[in-house]
Automatic annotation (TrEMBL):
Residues 140-161 are annotated as: Disordered. It comes from Tetraodon nigroviridis. GO terms for cellular component: cytoplasm; SCF ubiquitin ligase complex. Pathway: Protein modification; protein ubiquitination. Keywords: Ubl conjugation pathway. This is (spotted green pufferfish) hypothetical protein. The keyword Coiled coil does not apply.
Length: 212
C-alpha cells in the first residue's frame, strides 16, 4: 500500500528522497507527497547550492512545508550567494504554511531586509549568520539609495510603499553567535508588535546602552 511506502520513505533524508524518486515513476510520484516535506532539514547536506534550492522549491516543496532548516555557504571555500530574493519569493508562494525557518552559517548581507523572508514565519532562528545593517528595520535603506540613485527615483519607491503598514508575524526570534547583531538591530526589533520571545547568545556587539 502507498501509505506504508510513504511511511518507509519518511525515514530518508532529503538527499536520499530525491534519489529514491529516480527508481521508478511510482516512487517519483510518492516522493513528492507533501507528507514527506513537512519538516525539511538541509543542515547536514553540506553540498547544498542555490541550484539545489531551486530544484527543491520547483519540484518538491509545497503547501505541506512547516519547518525549513538550511545551512549556508558562509564557512564554505566556494562562498557565493546562497539565498536570493527571487528564491525566497518563490518559496513564499509555494509554501504558504511555512512557519519556522532556521538558517545556519548563512550570509544575509545580499538581502535588503527581513521583509524578503516568507511573511508566514512565526519562528526565525539564525545561527552563525552575517546580517546587513538594516536587516530588521521596517524601512530599510533601499538598494537604489545605497547605490546613489536619483532622488526622484528614491521618492517614487518611498511613495510606492506608503500607506501599507507592514505586519510582522514573527513571534520568536533566536540569534545564536551572530556577531554582526548590534544595538541598531535591537532597536529595530522594538517595532515588532507580534514578537513575544527573543533569545540572544554570543551577540558580542550589543552594549549596555542598547539593552536599556
Amino acid at each position: 500500500p502507498e501509505n506504508i511506502l510513504i511511511d518507509v520513505l519518511s525515514f530518508l533524508n532529503v538527499r536520499e528522497l530525491i534519489r529514491a524518486g529516480r527508481v521508478c515513476k511510482k516512487w517519483k510520484r510518492l516522493v513528492k507527497d507533501q507528507r514527506l516535506w513537512r519538516n525539511v532539514d538541509l543542515t547536514s547536506w553540506k553540498g547544498v547550492t542555490s541550484r539545489i534550492l531551486w530544484l527543491l522549491v520547483r519540484q518538491y516543496l509545497g503547501c505541506g512545508l512547516r519547518c525549513l532548516r538550511l545551512r549556508g555557504l558562509l564557512l564554505s571555500a566556494r562562498g557565493g550567494t546562497f539565498l536570493s530574493e527571487s528564491w525566497l519569493k518563490s518559496l513564499s508562494a509555494k509554501c504558504p504554511r511555512l512557519g519556522k525557518l532556521y538558517l545556519l552559517h548563512t550570509d544575509l548581507r545580499s538581502l535588503p531586509s527581513f521583509q524578503v523572508l516568507p511573511p508566514t514565519l512565526v519562528v526565525l532562528e539564525l545561527c552563525g549568520c552575517e546580517l546587513p545593517r538594516d536587516f530588521f528595520s521596517k524601512t530599510p535603506s533601499s538598494h537604489a539609495e545605497a547605490s546613489g540613485a536619483a532622488p526622484q527615483q528614491r521618492t517614487k519607491q518611498k511613495r510606492k510603499g506608503a500607506g501599507h503598514p507592514l505586519r510582522i508575524a514573527i513571534e520568536r526570534l533566536v540569534l545564536n553567535n551572530v556577531p554582526s547583531f548590534t544595538d541598531q538591530h535591537l532597536q529595530s526589533l522594538t517595532s515588532w508588535d507580534s514578537l513575544r520571545g527573543l533569545v540572544l547568545r554570543d551577540t558580542f556587539r550589543l552594549t549596555a546602552n542598547g539593552l536599556r
